[in-house]
Structure prediction request, 263 residues.
Amino acid sequence: MTGILGAGQPLDWIRTALDILLLAFLLYRAWGLLVSAQAVHLLRGAVVLVALWGVAFFLQLTTVSWVLTTLAPALVIALAIVFQPELRKLVLKLGQGRIFGGAQGPDADTIDAVMNAAGMLAATRRGALIVFARTVGMRNFAETGNRLDAVVSSSLIVSVFGWDTPLHDGAIIVQEGRAVAAGCFLPLSEQQDIRKSFGTRHRAALGLSEVSDAVVLVVSEETGAISIAENSRLFYDLGVAQARRMLGDLLSVPGEESEDDDE
Prediction:
């Protein structure tokens, strides 16, 4: 009997270690989803309520405990209503995201090709919208456009956006270093305080950054300004070198950190 128990102990250790590692990984991924969906304040609010209930229970504050226990279902419903946009983004990212991390991002040559095209388009006041996918899948958005599965090049981007082609008003989606689709429709931003001067491209770039972790490059047709949308924020009117460096940082592309800030 002792031999049998002794033989099972290494298996128990492996099982325990695997249990801890899987739990840590799930917590890490869940925290990443909360941060990218800007739902951290939702988690903090829930933690505060639980802590308040714990203090009331420990100090035997019967009235407070009774009120919190009675109102708990109503509070859950109220939180779901108040934070409905954040919960929607979280569920969308959970459904589209890759559980075990992101796919391979673009290399430095791809970034250079995109930025060279962006510079030419900005100089001629031709609008452009280019999406760089990260961990959240873009299949649903790619299906709204035309499939390409092409190597990313400056000539391809200028051909799509440089003239009034059928694909001009949509977005090019770059995933795993390739242009997977063009002429794609993106969701418009839900932000209420967005600049009135921003057109559909900027609103679409912000909108996609609100429901995914994609990085979106925008060239304004009205002003020629180059901007980047990421994590519900818009970095407006960047220099070509500054935008190249920012894309390299956000997409973890080696060799982009040493670029000058402006050209």
Remarks:
- The mean pLDDT is 78.
